[in-house]
Specification:
With about 270 residues, the protein is mainly alpha-helical. The chain has 14 helices and no strands. Helix 1 packs across helix 2 and helix 7 packs antiparallel against helix 11. The chain is globular, with a radius of gyration of 18 Å.
């Protein structure tokens, strides 16, 4: 028997499960259904056993229709992101990474806008930025996990421009020594912080309860990146060999920080 949307989000993401608790009932139900669909599509590709199996699974993606309120163009964009993974994504530069992050996460922010009651004209750019920020955090946290799947999302241009001119690490090298990613991860998390700031500016375009829920999700995810950097500064070898999580105390603190962000978002914009 398949999981319900509530079970899927609790198992797949404790951060999103926590944030969704603060949504109004109808928005919460739709958000969890959307999460389950996105998660199911992602798992379908990740669990491919070989190239032939992968081809069959790509065909199956088109037999998994999204929830009926999802913009079809957004759904197609998300599937293009999954196809990038399936083809063995090659990230040459920050532009490639930005496109990938938009397709697998920024577009999910766009899917969320109508079910949250967002101002669609004003809020979509911020929603996309917040989704991309979260995906950058995922990429930085999951360097070794992704490498086991043969995937490297760190832009090759970073190493070509580095003072010591090291070649970009391969997936096999990151499996063996994920700490090699540390300098690039530090750089990418700085970019992620810029995107979080841009994303949080969109809170003013959401109803209060939805703004609070989205602020919680964003802040908890941002803390994952900050915790990863703190641990990597002490022992990068250890930090990149385990899944970084936010403690209960950290999540509790995020609730108060989210409230402050939402209150700030209601202040008049300075001109």
């Amino acid at each position: 028997m398949g999981m319900t949307p509530d079970q899927a989000i609790r198992q797949g993401s404790k951060s999103f499960a926590l944030a969704s608790m603060f949504l109004p009932s109808e928005s919460r139900t739709r958000a969890r259904v959307l999460y389950q669909w996105c998660r199911s599509c992602d798992d379908l590709i990740d669990e491919a056993k070989d190239a032939e199996d992968l081809k069959k699974r790509l065909d199956l993606l088109f037999q998994m229709p999204p929830p009926d309120w999802v913009n079809p163009d957004h759904a197609k964009e998300l599937i293009e992101g999954f196809k990038m993974d399936a083809a063995g994504v090659h990230i040459r530069n920050l532009e490639d990474l930005d496109l990938y992050c938009f397709r697998v996460a920024g577009v999910v922010g766009l899917m969320m806008c109508p079910l949250l009651g967002a101002d669609l004209e004003q809020g979509q750019a911020a929603a996309s930025a917040l989704g991309k920020a979260m995906q950058l955090t995922n990429i930085c946290r999951d360097v070794q996990t992704d490498a086991h799947l043969g995937r490297v999302y760190l832009p090759a241009e970073f190493w070509r421009g580095a003072p010591d001119s090291h070649a970009p690490p391969t997936a096999a090298e990151l499996v063996a020594r994920p700490e090699r990613a540390y300098p690039a991860v530090k750089w990418l998390l700085g970019i992620a912080d810029e995107r979080y700031r841009e994303g949080f500016k969109g809170l003013r375009y959401l109803p209060l309860r939805c703004a609070f829920a989205i602020a919680v999700a964003g802040l908890v995810y941002q803390k994952i990146g900050k915790r990863l950097l703190t641990e990597a500064e002490k022992d990068p070898e250890k930090a990149f060999r385990k899944r970084t999580v936010v403690s209960r105390a950290g999540k509790f603190a995020s609730l108060f920080q989210a409230l402050w962000l939402v209150l700030q978002s209601r202040l008049p914009v300075k001109t």
